[in-house]
Amino acid sequence: MALIMKYIESINRYMDSHSDSRTKDWPMMSSPFPTLAVCLTYVYLVKVLGPRLMENRKPLHLQNMLVVYNALQVVFSAWLFYEIGVSGWLTGHYSFRCQPVDYSNNPRTLRMVHACWWYYFSKFTEFMDTIFFVLRKKTSQVTTLHVIHHGCMPMSVWFGVKFTPGGHSTFFGLLNTFVHIVMYTYYMFSAMGPQYQKYLWWKKYLTTLQMVQFILIMVHAFQLLFIDCNYPKAFVWWIGMHAVMFFFLFNEFYKAAYKNRLMKKNALLANGHAKPNGYCKSINAHDDLFMPQPAAETTTASTAKANGNGNATLSNGHANGLKNGYKPLPNGNAAAVANGSAHKTNGILLTNGFGNGSGGYATKLLDDVAQELTHRKTQK
After folding, report:
1. pLDDT digits (tens, 9 = 90+) for 235-260
2. Which of 271, 290, 321 is the C-terminal boundary of a domain?
3. pLDDT in tens, 96-106
């Protein structure tokens, strides 16, 4: 134990001797271990303790809290974007090609240093994203990508505030706060209820925006490996490799969430889950009958033999059962149905606009139904 404490003390001395003197006495800046402890606690809370505590509890309904939280995050992100921008990037005082760290006490420089610390602090507030998922028992949202992204960021930003508050690395914060303005706006509308779903069609483009962000950060960081700039190469690799890691993680998420979903949807449609060329609604007092003309084309898969035993072969389609108590087919015969849906009504099987059985066609369906109703009244 004494050896560990001695090792920690030596790390702190080394950091104090090489760190920025302007931030060394600021909250959480004296040592990396408090930040590391908070990050590890976060991971344990959302992956182990939280799900265990909520296992036998009902999910919490936090709609109003979520709306307020996301609105505050939008305001906070917008303020950070403004502060980082006017302190250098959006006023022409910073160069996108090479921007060394200014360690002076110039008012504009100190404004950027303070913005860096508040950006670091914002990474802790984002832990609430995952905590709300746990409280609402949305465990599917607590993905590896989500936890790694939120769990690593405070530690990563801590090094920047400790050693290089300002300069080239703050481009990351500029882009990230802009993305968070868009992201938390989406979350806010999503939390406001189903009536706002029509405004949220751009969800997948939000993931694309995040990936574009990481590409820009990679290019911006790694360019310093090929030009002469008074900026620490260690931080070039630190920022660049973080962007590479998050790009591939978000890319895997994008493929899993959108491309695979689209492929499954197309597969379902190909296997007969789409509407056939003709169909008949179940007959009720106020139902309408829609019977479009059948398509002329036929395929080998769309024909099958009926064996008279009440069984029908269905290929790439499905048959709905009897509707409203009408009798089954008299002889148990049914035409096989392919590539569509079939409805049995009054003992008649309708496929692509035709009905086979009882010697009638679909055009006589209404008459058959009327006769059946008359026959039932007579029996009564």
Report:
1. 899 899 888 988 887 777 777 766 65
2. 271
3. 999 999 999 99
263: number of Cβ within 10 Å: 11
Nearest to 96, CA basis, from 239, 246, 229: 229
Largest CA distance in the chain: 103
CB atoms under 10 Å from CB of 378, counted, come to 7
CA atoms within 13 A on the CB side of 161: 30
Each residue of 70-92: pLDDT tens digit?
A: 999 999 999 999 999 999 999 98
Report the Cα 43 to chain-centroid distance in Å: 20
Residue 281 lies in a domain: no
Give catalytic status of residue 286 as yes or no: no
Single out the catalytic residue among 93, 149, 220, 286: 149
Residues 227, 94 share a domain = yes
Range 229-232 contact pairs with CB under 8 angstroms and sequence separation of 24 or more: 229/97, 229/98, 229/99, 229/100, 229/168, 230/98, 230/100, 231/98, 231/99, 231/100, 231/101, 231/164, 231/167, 231/168, 232/163, 232/164
Rounded to two decimals, the pTM is: 0.67
Domain count within the chain: 2
Percent helix, percent strand, percent coil in the chain, to nearest 5: 60, 5, 35
Indicate the SS3 state at residue 117: helix
Give the chain's length. 380
What radius of gyration, in Å, describes the C-alpha atoms of the chain?
33
Cβ partners under 8 Å of residue 292, min gap 6:
277, 278, 353
Kindly state the tokens that stand for 128.
Answer: 């609430």
Taking the C-alpha atoms of residue 12 and residue 31, their distance in angstroms, rounded to an integer, is 6
Is residue 1 one of the residues assigned to a domain? no
Question: How far, CA to CA in Å, does 12 sit from each of 24, 159, 200, 232?
Answer: 11, 13, 47, 20
